[in-house]
Amino acid sequence: MEIDKSAILHLLRSEGPSDKAELAATSLPDRVSTDTHADLLARLGVDPQELIEFAAGKAEGAFGGLLGHK
User: pTM of this prediction?
Assistant: First the structure.
């Protein structure tokens, strides 16, 4: 599944101040594949399943359209 980078940045920033959000901002593409980028997501401390659930919840609100499909 592909997720917009902004959803990942929002998730990381919602957890409080961290260098992880800045690393994600500079190292992830605009559309992030939970499969292709699994290693980088793990280094950022982001569980792909948690990310999918987070983005799915936001897709119904202000962050509509964050989810995409491979």
Answer: 0.71
